[in-house]
Amino acid sequence: MAVANVSTHGASAHDHHDDHEHSDNFITKYIFSTDHKMIGKQFLVTGIVWALIGGFLSILFRLQLGFPDMDMTFLKPILGGWIDESGALDTNFYLALVTMHGTIMVFFVLTAGLSGTFSNYLIPLQIGARDMASGFMNMLSYWLFFIAGILMFISLFIETGPAGGGWVIYPPLSALEQAIPGSGLGMTLWLVAMVFFIASQLMGGINYISTVINLRTKGMSFSRLPLTIWSFFLTAIIGLLSFPVLFSAALLLVFDRSFGTSFYLSDIYIGGEALPNTGGSAVLFQHLFWFLGHPEVYIVLLPALGITSEVIATNSRKPIFGYKAMILSMLGITVLSFVVWAHHMFVSGMNPFLGSIFMFLTLIIAVPSAVKVFNYLTTLWRGNLIFTPAMLFSIGLVSFFISGGLTGIFLGNSAVDIQLHDTYFVVAHFHLVMGSASFFGLMAGIYHWFPKMFGRMMDAKLGYIHFWLTFVGVYMVFFPMHYIGIAGFPRRYYSWTNFNFADMYTDLNMFVSVAAIITFGAQFIFLFNFFYSMYKGRKASLNPWRSNTLEWTTPLEPGHGNWPGEIPTVYRWPYDYSKPGAKEDFIPQTVPLSSTPESNLPHEAEQVKLEREIMAEEGSDILVANESKES
Amino acid sequence: MGFLIALGVLLLVSIIWMVYRIQTLVSVVKGSEKKVATGSNKVNAALFLLFLIGSGVLMFWYSIKEFDTYHLPIASEHGVVTDNLFWVTMAVTGIVFIITHILLFWFSYRYQYKEENTAAFYPDNNKLEILWTLVPAAVLTVLVVSGWKAWSDITAPAPENAHVIEVMGYQFAWEFRYPGKDKQLGNYDYRLINPTNSRGIDFTDKNALDDFPAQKVVIPVGEPVLFKIRSRDVLHSVFAPHMRLKMDAVPGMPTRFWFVPTKTTAQMRAELKDDEFVYEIACTEVCGGGHFSMRREIEVVEPEEYQKWFAEQKTFVEMDPALIADAPSEIKELAQIESAE
């Protein structure tokens, strides 16, 4: 455990931040802010807005699926021409709804909204830094995301409709305007928006990585980082390595669409004419797309798992079980996430031998995931559990992670996948393991760090109601989909009544739709709680969850620069909860081991000695939270 | 309608508001915000237990009651193998699912906050970590190896004697082509596609002369069948749910899937006591507005019946002699000989 040799950079180099803090006006404080905390909040609020839009789109197509004969004329005021004379939803627009729901939820909500919010907000606060490595780039990251959002939003309202080829935008469908109206201007806007989005992700990612590597406070070695930071760090690495591949895939698609190249197009006869393109490969796009697409799953999931680790440990009043095993399994997931992509393509026509290889690699990644689950369970075991709303959402996350993760074992097995591929079984699988689990991570994070963000508490009871409605609701929506999927119902179907084998389960689909509407409705409880508490909530105490990590040593509403005085030094790992012998059931990271001889473990004696040596060297006294050295 | 919705929303919001205010005031009166854990802690803990029992019962009840509805009958040889794998995986993951969820919710209930309790300081145990790394790894290895065997068999080259049928997807239907007596499909080129030659068959290739189209796939029971799959425009995917068959149709890259049907349509009708039953083909790769309507039928018949049907079919050229109008004279002669037979 290296305590030594961590330089004192942060403390002195950033002191000037304090000086210009008071000169903030509205624009520099709330709009073009370079403060990581404000940027985090910007990502959060934007993410919430997108979540509402994405959720609303899903309600629209759930209406179609649950009540296929419904007269949707009442939606005319919003959907206009997409509802025909007889009150039926347009089939192309149905696909556009599905596509935009996927795009918005995966990229704008669970990538930008989750990782953007908490990486920005928590990294400097939990590692003890004044701000991100580059505040300006951080600001740029948000505003590029904002531009991406504007473009995507505009595409919802154009005459030919938004992109409609599924969120995976497989060409040739996405390349040819003749194939589906959404592949016209809608697809162009989608691609341009995603280019901005990718740029935003890269700027964010570079910042997160360099901040974690360079700006850790004194004593904050990698082996003392909270698991949240580990997860954000690894997420950023995954994003940095995989998003450029999506960029290249999108760029080649732009060439095919607009400049007559044939990267993905070959031997196509459509709209009464044979296209000149030959030699391209539609499967090439799938390889490029999923090279991002699969790591993307972990980009949305890892931060949620990191947040959960922190919340579960804090509210179990127990150290997270297997801190090192947790880090190792996250590292394992990070590496393996890059070599499993083709399991989305078992029946795409790629070489079956490749299928066998990817089946082996895919099922290996289940092992670190299993380790994480067992570690969570052991953390709960013999704890003293306090069910804050954040804790409830974290337990819910573990449940979804198990349920959705286990169905991955079916889909990762290429022989079993033949039947299940592109059925509702897949829909159920990824909505649980990636969608709902990450969403619950986002919620856990909001409930847990709200007091730090806004200095006030969210209402716990409303949080409980929100949790139970959402938790039960999510299972009611996605669990029945397993049955529908085993029965072979293909996904992205406007209706199933054309087929004898799928002409059933109207009752179950209706049930799912009603459950979806209730679950969506329950989110308004959260919205109220969120915005009301921001202004009228009970004032928070400095460390309301009695947590160990550094962010709780800042003032109630930290200014730009986070700590008014010197940045506190870190003397221990973040999970000293209920340590035998200690007075309280938590010991913050800023408390030196030398001041807690009553609770030190035998192997920590060594570190105490080291700690003393360093202090003697620097001639400084022990600094505890919120104390500043008079100079 | 809009007014009613607005009224409903207003009502809902005001109810939530009142409940919220009342409970805030109550909690202030009780002074509960100063406590580490309030009575809600007990309620939440109990709800986890209730959820475990309630949803567990519901899951078992529905899974057993509805088994025949969601379990599609199997009609191909490899389908038996993959379905077995599916149910073995279901058993293994089912056990893990149940055990982990019992632990998760039981721990949540059992170890709920009590003032007099202290949590155990139990930061790590390497033996446990190794145990639950190796056990899942071993179980997964067994699943992978059996899956790999099945996958290799399914994707192995089709037997020599397989009946070849070309399946071509386009927006929004499938077209089928049989190779005729010579068992050889004629060449095709997408540039040759026109209203009378929707598949772009090259009729200067003599193998194409006896090729014939079919409205539905007719195949003999118990004999290997090879689908040669291609697409004319965008991606499609051939899905025959009862055959446990799925393969994408890719423009510019022909794909294939072979299988052995095990039950005739008539046998399946008798088994299911459903006179309407037919095997179906659907599309499972999103391909545009009509994606959900790409339905075709498969009819599985006895081999003798298949031979009879096969001999009765009219070739493309017989149906439309104009197709070979531009072909070289030796092709025309060949076509005449064939139709005379």
UniProtKB/TrEMBL annotation, chain A:
It is a multi-pass membrane protein. Residues 26-571 form the Cytochrome oxidase subunit I profile domain. This is Cytochrome-c oxidase. Gene3D superfamilies: Cytochrome c oxidase-like, subunit I domain (1.20.210.10). GO terms for molecular function: cytochrome-c oxidase activity; heme binding. The chain crosses the membrane at residues 43-65, 93-118, 139-158, 189-215, 227-255, 297-313, 325-347, 353-374, 386-411, 423-450, 462-490, 510-532. Residues 12-21 have a biased composition (Basic and acidic residues). Pfam families: COX1 (PF00115). One of its GO terms (biological process) is electron transport coupled proton transport.
